[in-house]
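User: Some background: our group keeps a shared notebook of sequences we're curious about, and every so often someone picks one and asks for a predicted structure to add to the entry. Today it's my turn. The entry only has the sequence so far, pasted here. Could you supply the structure so I can complete it?
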Amino acid sequence: MTSIPLAEELLLLAYDDQTGKATGSRIGLDLGMAAAVLVDLALAGRIAYVDGFLTVNDPTPTGDQIADAVLARAAEDEPHTPAQWVQRLRHRLRTRVLEDLIARGVVRDVDETQMEFIHVHRYPTTDPHYEAEIRVRLTKALTSDEIPDERTAALATLLTATRMEPALRLPPDESARAHQRLEEIASGAGFSGGASLEDSIVRPSVALVVATLGRAISAALGAPKPA
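Assistant: Of course. Here's the predicted structure to add to the notebook entry:
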């Protein structure tokens, strides 16, 4: 199956398949999706982290509408830090991603009226194959010592940064090990300072972008609440 943008992968993991409701932190998801668009551009070799800013090094469109709109905006605008970009991009991004998923028949829009005039939208899954593929990749990464590919490593790191581990729906006795493995992946990729960029399991240019975006998300969310 053709891979889908990382922002879509995060959203599908965050929404309950049956109820169609978002689980976990809404702002965490929005920040993570904004970062995911930028990570996809880094994976495609379009942007890089240089002297504290995300800069465009190749303005050629990628073929993804949302990513290309961000790329064109970044090419025309003055440079911004990773923290500035995730804040600038997170507004209405979820709506645009949901519209794309609805148009492709991956989820459906259930519009319910509450208290006679309040509209509440749910997005239950229509085509489960995309999310199933995502979970297979993550499960393999979390349960084996194999080195994950760049996209899966980046996705795992975004899940940690946005504190979306509950979206993995693991039994309690497996959650601790999964969290440890997520941190190992981030460290091995050079995303958390645990490995030099020369030893990174992903391209150093990508590792720099993901690392800085992860820190920006963590700073925006603040210290986690005590368990």
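Suggested note for the entry: The two ends are 38 Å apart (CA to CA). The first strand starts at residue 47 and ends at 50.
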